[in-house]
Amino acid sequence: MSGLQVSPFGSGHEQVVFCQDEQSGLKAIVAVWSTALGPGLGGTRFYPYASESAALADVLALSRAMAYKASLAGLDLGGGKAVIIGDPQRDKSEARLRAYGRFVESLHGRYYTACDVGTFPEDMDVIARETSYVTGRTTAHGGAGDSSVLTAYGVFQGMRACAEFVWDSPSLAGRTVGVAGVGKVGRHLVEHLVADGADVVVTDVNSAAIESVRTAHPSVRAVADTAALVREPLDVYAPCALGGALDDETVSVLTARIVCGGANNQLAHAGTEDLLADRGVVYAPDYCVNAGGLIQVADELEGFSFERAKARATRIHATTLDVLHRAKDEGIAPSTAADRIAEQRMREVSRLRGILLP
């Protein structure tokens, strides 16, 4: 078992750890962007990356976003993320998860792990056998359980805020919402949208996921793929799969007036948001609206209360409105407004750590 701690030049991260255990087959990377507000907390993504460089690029981007997400959500947490390289259907094992837990433990609380793509509360229970720095555990072990529940709820609150900003009403009733990806988060989001009276169109690479949603909600319509979905006459587009969903081609054909979804790192490149603005599309920064899952697992550190966590996630509505109005008033992009609010809190709160106490 070995670990190398580095800080990639220009990445801005406090710490990046490469983890390898040959006997279990573990290859993982843990990235901590900042501990200015507290320990980095972020999920572990178990994914068959094409290369180590692709895994590194993903974990660096995700961990930075987690720091901003935690700050904007008002949490006393920094930003961290981890990736395990491999196919979770084939490569996940007790030995591999426990070896990963040993590396998390070696960071002595600078990073707390939780669930992400390819990992579940049951996996956190296995990891917890080797480290105390884990959250998002099963309810049987006093944990928060499936964090996608409040992730979807928070996205819905953000979407309601966008609707209020654009149409002067927080209701999605009668609006057509396209949801790309109906897995963990997307399927819960569909439930909220249907209950609110929205017309919902979905797509997913997994046909079983689509069938499950349509069985539960017969009014939901499905299209072949994302390319077809973004060309549908939509009012709102909700990317809820992997990152990079908003590339130039997608933006050029997008019919929706609002983009608000659960996926992380939705903008394919730095100029994408300008393209959205040029087309009159209101973009809700992903790390602003998808913070519900982080809020849910962070609450577990206090002794989990679902009602308390849900109340905190409800505030995403007000936070999103604040971001959108600040962006409009200052003539800046919503993501820039969100970044400034998050960075201001990081500066103001972390400064207090320098005050000497008697």
**Shape descriptor:** globular
Quickly count the helices.
15
Largest sheet: 6 strands, mixed
State the order of secondary-structure elements, H for helix, E for strand: EEEEHEHHEHHEHEHEHEHEHEHHHHH
Q: By helix and strand content, what is the structural category?
A: alpha/beta
- Terminal-residue CA separation: 43 Å
Which strand order does the major sheet show? 1-2-3-5-4-6
**Helix amount, in percent?**
40-55%
Low-confidence stretches: 1-9
- Rg computed from alpha carbons, rounded to a whole number of angstroms: 20 Å
Explain what you see.
This protein is α/β, with parallel strands linked by helices. Helix content is 44%, strand content 17%. It is built from 15 helices and twelve strands. The strands form two sheets. A six-stranded mixed sheet has the order 1-2-3-5-4-6, with helices on both faces. Helix 5 packs across helix 6 (184-195), helix 5 (148-167) packs across helix 14 (316-330) and helix 12 (292-299) runs antiparallel to helix 13 (306-314). The longest helix has 21 residues, at 52-72. The N and C termini lie far apart (43 Å).
Task: Output the keywords.
single chain; 358 residues; alpha/beta; 6-stranded mixed beta sheet; 6-stranded parallel beta sheet; 44% helix; globular; disordered N terminus
List the helices and strands and how they pair.
Blueprint: E1 2-6, E2 15-21, E3 26-34, E4 40-47, H1 52-72, E5 78-85, H2 88-91, H3 94-106, E6 111-115, H4 121-127, H5 148-167, E7 176-180, H6 184-195, E8 199-203, H7 207-216, E9 221-222, H8 226-229, E10 236-239, H9 248-253, E11 258-259, H10 272-278, E12 282-283, H11 286-289, H12 292-299, H13 306-314, H14 316-330, H15 334-352
Parallel strand pairs: 4-5, 4-6, 7-8, 7-10, 8-9, 10-11, 11-12
Antiparallel strand pairs: 1-2, 2-3, 3-5
